[in-house]
Specification:
globular; Nuclear Transport Factor 2, Chain: A; five-stranded antiparallel beta sheet
Length: 423
């Protein structure tokens, strides 16, 4: 039995009918002229009504049109473990050529995770009209198929941001207590990095220290989306209290708007590596044996390690030298220059502006070198200084035009944190 829309009538099929597992009805259209039609509200079709009565029969063309219009054109599927986009297309009998065109144009479409929802519609020919993938509560990708072309749009839902405070007390280590309180490893790393010049949370935290962290967490339909971004920290260690707050530029400052960052990172790599040779103006050269100043710091890094610019600046040299190998020189304002030697690959060009933390090269073993390492130098006023001990310049404070608004926001946040810290 197939329900028809519009006139609430019912088709009584006399020829054989096969029901597919998708719920669709397969009808032999050659016999469609024999299909009788009766109104639900009138007397039922029975022996008193001829099956082939012309008044009750539906013309073949009209029936074809009705079957096409009634065809189910929308599907939903939730991704299960072990499924791929290819297996889902195969399961529902979708076109392999459309799958090929889709993944060729947008390779990321095939990156499915368990629990994601797929929704697609078909046109009257059974070809894809659209495919929507709900990636998470916030994001969905929409692919539309029009005249042989595939377009992609990403729809990102906007929720409501609310402050959330997480507080705790150090009993063993800051990391363990912060995790127990509910902070994620990324949030903890954000705090550690923000305080790296002011307070070492890994080494200086002591039993009994208290902390309160304010997060900005997004909510959609009352449910939290993600873990949230760190906005403020109030840390109490003995009689000392440390407070930091994130400005709208994404950087952290103290209550008075002074930057917690430096104009330079101490290290030219993402993590700390063993120092194989320190800065030494009276060193004996390991190859020649002569006294030759070692004007930088050597880090024992594996070949191909990402080399990062330690400060904002302009590349003034990026070339090869028989002794230094492949090297890069960056000028930072009027006073400072940094140099990176023995590189395997240079990723920047002279004249290029770079940002602190930007990847500029890969470490190597080029030039006069006894093994894979990175040689890093800082020159201040054209004189080499020890990169590991030199006093690094302070970064800029909150702009004067923003200072009043920042101080008011920071003060309100500090009061909220103090309430939880002392509760």
């Amino acid at each position: 039995m197939q329900q028809l829309s519009g006139n609430q009538s019912i088709l009584s099929f006399l020829p054989p009918i096969s029901v597919l597992n998708t719920g669709a009805v397969d009808i032999n259209l050659a016999d469609s002229a024999k299909v009788p039609l009766a109104n639900i509200d009138s007397e039922p079709v029975g022996e008193n009504i001829a099956p082939d009565d012309p008044a009750l029969s539906v013309p073949k063309d009209d029936l074809d049109k009705q079957l096409i219009e009634d065809r189910v054109v929308q599907h939903n599927h939730t991704v299960s473990s072990g499924e791929s986009l290819s297996s889902i297309f195969s399961q529902y009998g979708l076109s392999n050529s459309e799958l090929y065109d889709l993944t060729k144009a947008y390779p990321a479409v095939a990156e499915l995770r368990v629990g994601q929802n797929l929704n697609w519609t078909l046109d009257k020919k059974g070809e894809l009209e659209s495919l929507t993938i709900q990636r998470d509560r916030k994001t969905k990708d929409v692919y539309t198929f029009t005249n042989g072309k595939i377009n992609h749009e990403q729809d990102i839902a906007k929720g409501e941001f609310r402050p959330v405070i997480i507080a705790g007390r150090v009993t063993s280590s800051f990391y363990q207590q912060a995790r127990s309180a509910g902070l994620t490893p990324n949030q903890i790393q954000t705090l550690v990095k923000a305080l790296q010049w002011r307070f070492d949370l890994g080494r200086q935290a002591r039993k009994g220290d208290k902390f309160a962290v304010e997060l900005s967490r997004e909510y959609i339909d009352g449910d939290p989306v993600g873990s949230g971004d760190v906005q403020s920290l109030l840390y109490q260690s003995g009689n000392d209290q440390i407070f930091i707050h994130r400005n709208k530029d994404g950087k952290f400052y103290d209550a008075d708007g002074h930057s917690l960052q430096r104009a330079f990172n101490r290290l030219p790599t993402a993590k700390r590596y063993r120092i194989s040779s320190s800065f030494n103006p009276h060193r004996h050269h390991p190859i020649t044996g002569r006294i030759a100043p070692h004007n930088g710091t050597d880090f024992a890094v594996p070949l191909g390690t990402a080399v990062l610019a330690t400060g904002d600046g302009v590349v003034v040299k990026a070339q090869h030298h028989r002794l230094a190998g492949n090297f890069v020189v960056i000028k930072h304002g009027r006073e400072y220059i940094t140099r990176y030697l023995h590189l395997s690959k240079i990723l920047v060009k002279p004249g290029q502006h770079v940002k602190m933390g930007q990847k500029i090269a890969l470490s190597g073993n080029t030039g006069r070198s006894t093994g894979p390492h990175l040689h890093y130098e800082i020159h201040k006023n054209n004189r080499p200084v020890n990169p590991m001990t030199v006093s690094l310049p302070q970064a800029s404070p909150v702009p004067r035009s923003q200072l009043n608004a920042y101080e008011a926001e920071a003060l309100a946040s500090k009061k909220r944190l103090a309430t939880d810290l002392n509760s």
